[in-house]
Design a protein that fits this description.
Elements (H helix, E strand, L loop, with lengths): L6 H6 L15 H5 L2 H16 L2 H4 L10 H34 L16 H28 L9 E8 L2 E7 L5 E5 L1 E5 L4 E7 L4 E3 L8 E3 L5 E5 L5 E6 L12 E7 L1 H12 L8 H14 L27 E2 L4 E2 L2 H9 L1 H4 L12 H11 L4
This protein binds heme C and copper (II) ion (CU).
Length: 368
């Protein structure tokens, strides 16, 4: 060996880069613990982190808000409790054996149990039994989450794109209400999501509403759940899908039934017609520059399918798949240079002048 590293010496040597007073950090005590004890701190820290609640960790699944999510969390808790029970039992027996049969001067050698058939059988059968106990609810939940939706379920087609979400609500008259990145549903009514993808494999996941499931091109997967509490729930694409995968977020708005009806009725109407002359210029500029990719119902922007529908864009709380607040400043910044916010974003920088951007932003902000 060319260079020998001496861990203890290295650790003790004065570190030029360490900030002054770093010896007083709360971790100092931990650092002083012997190795084995130091390791035991890690799970405790993780545990403390896990108790943060939904305010600190909005992507938590430990606070379920739908029947689906509740079933999953229940199953997780069962396995947690069983695991902790097994841990206490095994480490308890281990501690007892270590103390009881420790070496003492003159003590006889303990009896050797190697190859004891009864013991071997016991520690094979006990885990098998535990696994069977976990398997029963697991299989039941797998089947219960694959059941057909009830006839009055709200069906929504979820089409994943690099790197945004399209939501389509099939309506009674053969119409479709289409929106993006923010999906709205009513509390207490079963929702049936039909998942697919326009390009690569993505994965739909709103943890408080249930487990993740794949969006696969040319295939339809289903998620069926009933939301139990109104609110806004955060979601995220859960399958690596290219450069901006981590910026492919979504929000799920769970409304009261009346709130949802109001939202849907508004979404089904065509875009607000501009009256002001500046807004009319904004609308024309938008149609000229953006209609290749964006549809705005009720205008001449009717054919572009590469980007999100903008018909009621001003109602969205966020833009670019949940990564920016929807306000004039962010909207202008986004149009000026989408890739600055989302590496690889499939919306080009159109090289518009500041004036043009100003008109377009003003128009988009009227699209309630
Ligand atoms: C070549 C296609 C294309 C053109 C042209 C285009 N966009 Fe986009 N646009 C997209 C795509 C794709 C996205 C989704 C980007 C993402 O979130 O990853 C997008 C996203 C957006 C969003 C965010 C929508 C949301 O709900 O998150 C807005 C707003 C927007 N575009 C406005 C415009 C405007 C205004 C123009 C014209 C000046 C324009 N776009 C031109 C493709 C295009
Ligand atoms: Cu994705």
């Amino acid at each position: 060996m060319k260079s020998r590293v001496e861990p203890t010496r290295l650790r003790r040597s004065p570190n030029a880069e360490a900030p002054r007073g770093s010896g007083r950090s709360p971790f100092r005590k931990i650092r002083r613990l012997p190795g084995a004890w130091r390791l035991s701190v890690l799970p405790l820290l993780l545990l403390a982190g896990a108790c943060g609640g939904v305010d600190r960790f909005p992507m938590t699944w430990t606070e379920p808000r739908s029947d689906f999510a509740r079933e999953l969390w229940g199953l997780q808790q069962l396995t947690n409790y069983l695991g902790v029970g097994v841990g206490i039992l095994v480490f308890g027996i281990l501690a007892y054996i270590v103390v009881r049969f420790r070496w003492r001067p003159g003590a006889p050698e303990p009896s050797q149990v190697h190859g004891n058939t009864r013991m071997e059988l016991a520690w094979m059968l006990a885990p098998a039994l535990l696994l069977a106990v976990i398997a029963v609810p697991t299989v039941r939940i797998i089947f219960s989450t694959q059941e057909d939706p009830p006839p009055d379920a709200l069906t929504i087609d979820v089409i994943a794109h690099q790197w945004w979400w399209e939501f389509r609500y099939p309506m009674a008259e053969g119409d479709t209400v289409i929106t993006a990145n923010e999906v709205h549903i009513p509390v207490g009514r079963t929702v049936h999501l039909r998942l697919t993808s326009a390009d690569v494999v993505h994965n739909f996941w709103v943890p408080q509403m249930g487990g993740k499931r794949y969006n696969i091109p040319n295939r339809i997967n289903h998620i069926i759940f009933t939301p139990e509490e109104t609110g806004v729930y955060l979601g995220q694409c859960a399958e690596f899908c290219g450069e901006s995968h981590a910026l492919m977020k979504k929000r799920m708005f769970v409304h009261t039934p009346e709130g949802f009806d109001e939202w849907l009725r508004n979404e089904a109407s065509p875009a607000v017609e501009p009256t002001d002359s500046a807004l009319i210029i904004g609308q024309q500029l938008t149609i000229q520059n953006c209609a290749a990719c964006h549809i705005i119902e009720g205008t001449d922007a009717q054919f572009g399918r590469a980007g999100p529908y903008l018909t009621h864009f001003a109602r969205r709380r966020t833009l670019a798949a949940g990564i920016l607040d929807n306000n004039a400043q962010n909207l202008a910044d986004w149009i000026r240079d989408p890739q600055a916010f989302k590496p690889g974003a499939l919306m080009p920088n159109l090289g518009l002048s500041e004036d043009e951007i100003g008109y377009i932003v003003a128009y988009l902000q009227t699209l309630y």
